[in-house]
Amino acid sequence: MIMANGRHALHLTDEKLAIFEAEAGSQVRLDVPLVNVIHESHDVEWLWPQRIPLGRVTLIEGAPRAGKSFVAFDLAARASGGVAWPDSPQAAPGGDNAQPLQGCLLVSLQDNPSDTLGRRLQLAGGDPNRLLHFSQFLSTDLKKRQSIRPARFPGDLPAIEYVLDQHEGMRLIVIDPLSDFCPTPGLLAETIQRLNDLAADREFAIVITLRATGRFDSRGRLVIKSRWPTDAARCAWFVAVDPNDDSRRLFVPTRTNFCVEPTGMGFWIDAGRVVWDTAARIDFQDPLENLSGAALWLSQVLAEGEIPAKVIYSLGAECGYTPDMLRYAGKKIGARAATGSAAARKDIGNGRCRRSH
User: Fold this and answer.
1) In whole angstroms, what is the distance from residue 298 CA to residue 293 CA?
2) Model confidence over 286-334: pLDDT tens digits?
3) Contact 11, 21 (CB under 8 A)
4) What is the pLDDT of residues 129-183, one digit of tens each?
5) What is the DSSP letter of 286?
6) Which of 129, 130, 131, 125 is nearest to 98 (CA)?
7) 315: how many CB neighbours lie within 10 A of its CB?
8) Residue 134 belongs to what H/E stretch?
9) How many beta carbons lie within 10 A of that of residue 93, not counting itself?
10) 138-172 burial by CB neighbour count: b if 16+ within 10 A, else e?
């Protein structure tokens, strides 16, 4: 018998079948431990190599009007139209670098499928014959009165599976935003988990969008806040406005614990379509390149020898580097205060600074 806090007890009642009788307060139930062998992992398969995996849910977060829906629909258009991914050599559909044509199901309440939504997808090169849209049901009551009702998840997920059964070749589902179909955070969390199972069973990609806020702290790192429980989405990205250029967006990886963390990309929204900055490579730890820039600048400044910390702070401020950035950069390059006191050696904020060798 095993006791926990005096309220929960397990009694082994059948050793051969490993059945435990569990007592929790006035309730009694029978429990069987579920023990599985951890099999050898398989290589991750990708829709968009190194960025959007197959067999998993991918979350794209961002503030309203940041551009997360544009990114999601750009993915749908490329998948359906066979257009090369942004970081691949560009080619017309069917060219040497084009990807295989793949079907896509769009689940969205916000846009008229024949107007705004269709225009976005057409501009991005989508194939209308491979794009399906679903968001509502035609309901008939016992008095044969008909009405339109929106889909609600997770209860209506069997309808998604039915659509997939009726249309072969689907490799991508886009739900924009998932919160429109889930009235509570608890139902949304359950929906993400069930979508993960669906993606794994059918080996395709599911992309969901959600509203969240993001800001850059004093070091230039991205800090995200959301009211939604999204831990079940093992691949997550954030779309942020570039504080140095409000016409530019940053597509930043925020959670990819199943593979090597990918680099992000920049993009612009031009005339209703996404234009990717293929030269930019964005690191989640340093999306604005403040820390790497500060480290390079500090390394160059200290190359001549010791310099008073107050001078470094003054010169750094002229270049847009805060004291917090410079302290972090100092640790990154091994700079330290050249004084005898232990307190002064903790950061570059005291005494004279020099680079460690």
Assistant:
1) 9
2) 777 766 666 667 777 777 778 888 888 888 887 777 777 777 777 766 7
3) yes
4) 888 999 999 999 899 999 999 999 999 999 999 999 998 888 999 999 999 999 9
5) B
6) 125
7) 15
8) none
9) 15
10) eeeeeeeeeeeeebebbebbeebeeebeeeeebbb
Q: What are phi and psi of 296, to 5 degrees?
A: -65, -45
- Residue 108 tokens read as 């969205």
Domain residue spans in the chain? 2-31, 46-282, 290-355
Q: Tell me which amino acid residue 215 is.
A: R
Residue 354 backbone dihedrals phi, psi, to 5 degrees: -145, 165
pTM of the model: 0.75
CA distance 334 to 41: 38
* Distance from C-alpha of 62 to C-alpha of 65, rounded to nearest angstrom: 8
Separation CA 51–CA 55 (nearest Å): 13
CB 115 within 8 A of CB 126: no
CA dist., res. 110 & res. 101, Å (int): 26
CA distance linking residue 296 with residue 63, whole number of Å: 32
Query: What is the distance in angstroms between the CA of the first residue and the CA of the last residue of the chain?
Result: 60
CA distances from residue 349 to 22, 169, 194, 262, 308 in whole angstroms, order as listed: 59, 60, 51, 34, 9
Token pair of 39 as six digits: 């099999």
Tokens of 84: 């090369």
- Contact predicate 250/242, CB 8 Å: yes
CATH class of the domain at 46-282: alpha beta
SS3 (DSSP) at 33:
coil
The closest of 348, 282, 333, 293 to 87, measured between CA atoms, is 282
| Residue 73 three-state SS | helix
